[in-house]
Specification:
Blueprint: H1 43-51, H2 71-89, H3 109-113, H4 119-131, H5 137-161, H6 189-201, H7 206-220, H8 224-234, H9 240-251, H10 268-274, H11 295-306, H12 308-311, H13 318-326, H14 330-344
């Protein structure tokens, strides 16, 4: 396709990706662009849906739906993103904040997955912005790679490995989803916001889905099939071909490493570095054990300890397991005991 390639066939800027430039937390500036999407009143339709006995969860927002319903609206929102939002997308694509549900994300996935927009035209518009000097290369490369790279990759995974891929459970996780997955009523501020935002807006960006909700689900040992069904039901852009590989493979590592080379989990440190979630949380991001300790901390080390037979030989996890070896004895025992207690009372966290 020769997207973002120079005249001699080399990548623009001399690098294949610019992830190192795209990992900044958002301090509150620059200001996020206004939400210029039109609203739609579908309350009459929603009454019909409810009367038909269709089960749902979350806020339907039937009287103020803010997602495009035709190609003209989708194109208008694409224009808005390219001109007002793309320039800052790269810097803050991994950031999270209680002050903004959108930050600088495109919100184009629904229009793409319903075929109101063609991926090729979206990529072309982003590349044109770089060529015109209105968007920096790291932002454009990161955005294009999500569509031309990752989206097409997961499409291939789905069609190559279904049926049956959605039932994989390499780590044998079986715990049910806590009740607060349907209410957002948890004392973990990161999960309260990410789950609550998902229920309210049918949207969360990729880091919230992967490194907050999915991260917790994987370390807590939740059933990947149950997590998959929740993701498929809660997100407006979730169609099975794109949702199943992202959830079962990337988020829950339930395919044993077919899609991703390692499980994506973290302690509180990553979440604190990339968000404002830990500020004001009931739990202390620095504590590993005790009633006020952030659950992510003990669950993190326990996850690797109890899955060492499967993950211990993974070269990308060598540093983790070297550190775990140094923790053998009372320190690790205390962490694992605390994690075991957490996993028996997930609904009360």
């Amino acid at each position: 396709h020769r997207v973002l390639m120079d005249d001699v066939g080399e990548p623009e800027g001399g690098h294949w990706n610019y992830d190192h430039d795209n990992r900044k937390p958002w301090p509150g500036t620059p200001a996020t662009p206004p939400d210029a999407r039109p609203t739609h009143d579908h309350s009459a339709l929603w009454v019909t849906i409810v009367a038909a006995g269709v089960q749902s969860f979350g806020n339907p927002q039937s009287d103020q739906l803010r997602w495009p319903v035709n190609r003209a609206e989708a194109l208008a929102w694409l224009d808005h993103f390219i001109t007002t939002t793309l320039p800052h997308f790269g810097d803050y694509e991994d950031a999270m904040s209680t002050r903004s549900a959108r930050l600088f994300h495109s919100l184009l996935s629904f229009a793409l997955n319903t075929k109101m927009l063609n991926p090729r035209e979206v990529v072309q518009r982003a590349e044109a912005a770089y060529r015109a000097g209105t968007a920096p290369l790291p932002a454009v490369e990161g955005f294009v790679r999500q569509i031309l790279g990752w989206r097409e990759y997961v499409r291939g995974i789905y069609w190559a490995h279904m049926p049956g891929y959605d039932e994989r459970n390499a780590l044998g996780h079986t715990a049910p989803l806590p009740d607060w997955f349907w209410t957002g009523n948890t004392r973990m501020r990161c999960m309260q916001h990410a789950v609550g935002q998902s229920l309210e807006h049918a949207y969360a960006h990729h880091i919230q889905r992967l490194m907050v909700i999915g991260n917790f689900a994987l370390m807590a040992g939740l059933s990947p099939a149950a997590v998959h069904r929740w993701y498929l039901g809660v997100y407006i852009d979730a169609f099975e071909w794109v949702e199943v590989p992202n959830t079962v493979g990337m988020s829950q590592f339930a395919d044993g490493g077919l899609l991703a080379t390692k499980p994506y989990v973290s302690s509180a440190a990553y979440i604190d570095r990339m968000s404002d979630y830990c500020t004001g949380c009931h739990y202390d991001k620095k504590l590993k054990v005790g009633e006020r300790a952030c659950p992510y901390n003990a669950l993190y080390w326990d996850f690797f300890a109890r899955n060492e037979a499967v993950l211990g030989s993974n070269l990308r996890l060598g540093m983790v397991y070297r550190q775990l070896q140094k923790m053998q004895g009372p320190q690790l025992d205390a962490l694992r005991e605390h994690a075991a207690g957490l996993r028996t009372r997930l609904g009360a966290l």
